[in-house]
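User: Predict structure, ligand magnesium ion.
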Amino acid sequence: MAERIRVLLSEEEVDARIQAIGEQISRDYEGKQVHLICVLKGGSFFMCELAKRISVPVSLDFMSVASYGSDTKSSGVVRIVKDLDESLKDKDVIVVEDIVDSGRTLSYLLEVLRSREPKSLRLCTLLDKPERRVVDVNVDYTGFQIPDEFVVGYGLDYAQKYRNLPYIGVVENV
Ligand code: IMP
Ligand code: MG
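Assistant: Predicted complex:
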């Protein structure tokens, strides 16, 4: 079956929203340094664009987690595949994610990160699907709330494809 991508959020809309979040974070962290944690691979495009729009000093680190589940549904059991390089102790940390869906991955991850004693810990996500939430997670910065549809682009994949799309789209079978 062939696939077609329907645009949900255009490149211009996404860029403008990331600019606004960058400005908000710059205000909220005035006089501080922010330590951004990218959750690979999905969060990478968003983190790079966001980091460029933050005017306070920024440091970056990366981690990768795998959920024991199918591609489109996470099980809640999460394994750290690549851990952070640096300690979080006394840092003002923001976790940068592509999407919060059931909330299972993030809820586990935030618990792990909190145990490493950062000075503060916040969550920033490009997309949020509130209808799908199973586990409660407190999101501090949200790009867009979207309906319950499987989306790709801006780091998000479908079977590892479409991460490089500069907009957010919905995969349709035609
Ligand atoms: P959660 O644990 O259910 O919140 O799952 C979050 C992870 O599932 C995200 O980091 C994505 O990797 C993946 N995911 C959830 N929804 C989508 C989607 O619509 N498109 C692509 N990946 C998604
Ligand atoms: Mg992710």
